[in-house]
Write a structure and sequence with these properties.
28% of the residues lie in helices and 24% in strands. The protein is an alpha/beta fold. The chain has three domains: 150 residues, Rossmann fold; 208 residues, ANL, N-terminal domain (Rossmann fold, 3-Layer(aba) Sandwich), CATH 3.40.50; 112 residues, ANL, C-terminal domain (GMP Synthetase, Chain A, domain 3), CATH 3.30.300.30. The protein has a nine-stranded mixed sheet. Strand 10 and strand 11 form a beta hairpin. Helix 3 crosses helix 4. The longest helix is centred in the N-terminal third of the chain and has 18 residues.
Length: 534
């Protein structure tokens, strides 16, 4: 594989001269010039001392890529196929360069998924700390991530709106590098993944290599026997769920299919590209968020046919409405709902062949134990949670998820987020995810946000291309599935679809409620609603 951002194309040695690509400009579309650059102030002893800063399982790369023929395709793009031999060679090359460069904390912002995956594995193998930079983060958020983690290395194109030079970065042996005082992190941290959060400052979740590998192996085992030979990657790799889903595919020797699509885009052309890619790729597995599943079901109502090659479609990231599950059952799609959170290395529970109960998120992964607190909050034990950058957690203690649920025969059912619950003016507790899921199960409604804190009625912001009458009919139908206190009485159209671009949607399709509430605050005033009701 020929890397394209700051990577040597020849074997490297701590005592040798290194041929590196050096940027001519700071623009993301800059050219690369090949020039020889001497390694100075890097003796063999100092190089070895800096070699690992994270304790990782022995030969971690072998654990992910073991048992696969070198000639088997590992990554397939629209234009080229990369074998497992290519992948291992590329990882080894980057691993050696990372080691020689003295990198410790690596910010990964590769726009090329092939490069992203290769660098990710190299950082893991080198025993360094990986900080994935979500492509939808603003320059201010990216700067926050770099400052919070003390990242000393930047891999990938440079954002035009972010001056790395102003942050003391300069072109180095490995992408862009700087000298920085190391940030104290929980022991064992191998990756820091930043959640979108409800504010402008994302939270850094610390993860160990062992925890991530354990989840990836559990996902591989869940798909065992399903003959998964091709996995279609849809979500951004900075989303931990997709990241570990790809690791699981590698562990099973599958080919990861990468396509140039934007699955969460509301653009009609992009949605058609998504459907075409799903049809042409003929993959065996993929990971969806509820919004994507709802979109595919609506497409099915218009004639889209899911290829019969699919054997395992995992859905996570939010509540799936019963109406959508009914459609899935009618179409006999192999959809398996799951549940997880970044703090627990993504997946916690998952339905799977032979252990599938629709309407639940399945049973806990084998290495985890799920229990309920007195108030119904879901607690997870066994995930070895390290906590956050500024708030470490004892990995031997259970993790309070902040979600409310019930457990029946080992199957977990999610009610919603504890902090998202609102109390109506009549004292009734309502979880908005439940109501929103029912609304979005109607073909006429693309997205919905529901609010009712201290209000006499529940109100909704609706994204739809249908007429007002069609939307009202859809809301009326959804209300028949809900008790009186949870029904929607008033609605307005959203000014624009909820998206990552307007900061109203996370990468995995969850609503960013604070931002939406701020945008439509005037609509939720009790005085205005009282006038609407008269």
């Amino acid at each position: 594989m020929v890397p394209r951002s700051g990577v040597a194309t020849m074997p490297l040695s701590p005592r040798s001269w290194v041929a590196i690509f050096r940027r001519d400009t700071v623009n993301s579309s800059c050219r690369m010039s090949l020039r020889e650059f001497p390694i100075r102030r890097c003796t063999y002893r100092s190089w070895w001392r800096r070699r690992r800063i994270v304790t990782v399982p022995e030969n971690v790369l072998h654990r992910i890529l073991r048992g696969t023929s070198p000639d088997t395709v590992a990554i397939e793009t629209e234009n080229r196929a990369y074998t497992y031999h290519d992948l291992q060679k590329g990882v080894a090359l980057r691993c050696e360069q990372l080691t020689i460069s003295g990198a410790r904390v690596v910010a990964l912002f590769e726009s090329n998924p092939v490069e992203w995956l290769t660098w990710d594995l190299a950082i893991l193998q080198a025993g360094l700390i990986c900080v994935p930079i979500p492509p939808f983060f603003t320059p201010r958020q990216v700067q926050h991530v770099l400052n919070q983690t003390g990242a000393d290395t930047w891999i990938g194109p440079v954002l035009e709106s972010l001056s790395l030079k102003a942050l003391n970065f300069a072109a180095g042996l490995c992408g862009w590098q700087r000298r920085v005082i190391p940030v104290v992190m929980p022991p064992g941290t191998a990756k820091v993944t930043f959640t979108s959060g409800t504010t402008g400052a994302p939270k850094g979740v610390c993860l160990s290599a062992a925890a991530m590998l354990q989840v990836a192996a559990a996902l591989r085992d869940a798909m065992a026997g399903q003959r998964i030979g091709r996995h279609l990657m849809l979500l951004p790799l900075a989303v931990l769920l997709e990241n570990l889903g790809v690791w699981a595919a590698f562990m099973s020797g599958a080919a990861v299919c990468v396509r140039d699509i934007k699955p969460l885009s509301v653009d009609a052309e992009e949605q058609q590209n998504l459907l075409a890619s799903i049809a042409r790729t003929r993959a065996n597995s993929m990971i969806l968020v509820p919004q994507l599943l709802a979109g595919l079901l609506k497409a099915a109502n218009r004639g889209f046919v899911l290829p019969d090659s699919f054997r395992f479609i995992a859905v996570g990231g939010g509540r799936v409405a019963q109406g959508l599950l009914d459609q899935v059952s009618k179409l006999q799609w192999p959809v398996y709902e799951g549940y997880g959170l970044s703090e627990c290395a993504s997946v916690v529970c998952l339905n799977r062949p032979g252990a599938h109960r629709p309407g639940t998120v399945g049973k806990a992964l084998p290495h985890l134990q799920v229990m309920l607190a007195d108030d119904g909050e879901i607690m997870v034990l066994g995930a070895a949670v390290l906590g956050y950058l500024d708030n470490p957690h004892d990995p031997d203690q259970p993790w309070p998820t902040g979600d409310i649920g019930t457990i029946t025969d080992g199957y977990l059912t999610i009610s919603g987020r504890k902090k998202h619950q609102f109390i109506t003016a009549f004292g009734r507790n309502v979880n908005p995810e439940w109501v929103e899921a029912e609304l979005c199960s109607q073909p006429e409604i693309n997205q919905a946000f529901v609010y009712g804190e201290a209000l006499p009625i529940n109100v909704a912001v609706i994204v739809s291309s249908g007429s007002d009458q069609a939307v009202q009919s859809a809301i009326d139908l959804a209300n028949t599935r809900l008790p009186d206190y949870a029904q929607v009485s008033i609605w307005i159209r959203a000014r624009a679809p909820f998206s990552t671009q307007n900061r109203q949607l996370t990468a995995n399709g969850r609503l960013r409620r604070e931002q939406i509430l701020d945008c439509y605050q005037s609509f939720f005033q009790p005085s205005k609603l009282s006038l609407e009701c008269t």
